[in-house]
């Protein structure tokens, strides 16, 4: 069965510093991988996705992620963090469902705090 | 495109009562999903509709839970005889039936508190 591990529950960075959030997945086939961000009172917003092709994917808000099949990882990065990036970040793997739908299995999330 | 909407945003109910939540997906999105998120956890898949057909249900969806999407547009999730363990955020998501489109768009959720 598919699973996602986000080993860091909380991360604190200074504004302007670089950021890397870790994500490891377990899935037998080529995975569909996603990063979502959730702010208090808000729904989940998609930051970026990987389905195939170039293993370095760019997303919104200056985020990028790199798919490494050999390490079963899909880490999220940002070169310079802004105070508004403080939120909870979820990595997810998608598996196909009957009719072409896609079930998302999420990690437990990483809470990002940004110090000014 | 007004996004996925969910109502109510918050619901407090007493144990044993029935509750119903509504989800309005993005128009023309024929795939609709329900997830449940408890404190400190990521969302967990509950069920999936393509148009009005419920094609997949998680084992998390006990017989007290029922979901419908009668006309292939909005969906409802009903919980009967609520228990304190049902307290969670219930999230709805939708996606279009487009080849190569696998991302889901989430609503703001309905937070259920069972007292």
Describe the fold and architecture.
The complex is a heterodimer of chains A (116) and B (115). Chain A is mostly beta strands and 116 residues long. Chain A is built from no helices and 12 strands. Chain A has strands at 3-5, 10-14, 19-21, 24-26, 32-38, 44-50, 56-58, 64-68, 73-78, 87-96, 102-106, 110-115. In chain A, the strands form 3 sheets. In chain A, strands 2, 5, 6, 10, 11 and 12 form a 6-stranded mixed β-sheet that branches. In chain A, strand 5 (32-38) and strand 6 form a beta hairpin. By secondary structure, chain B is mostly beta strands. Chain B is 0% helix and 49% strand. Chain B is built from no helices and 11 strands. In chain B, the strands form 2 sheets. In chain B, strands 2, 4, 5, 6, 9, 10 and 11 form a 7-stranded mixed β-sheet that branches. A 4-stranded antiparallel β-sheet of chain B has the order 1-3-8-7, with no helix packed on it. The termini of chain B are far apart. At the A-B interface, strand 5, strand 6, strand 10 and strand 11 of A face strand 4, strand 5, strand 6, strand 9 and strand 10 of B.
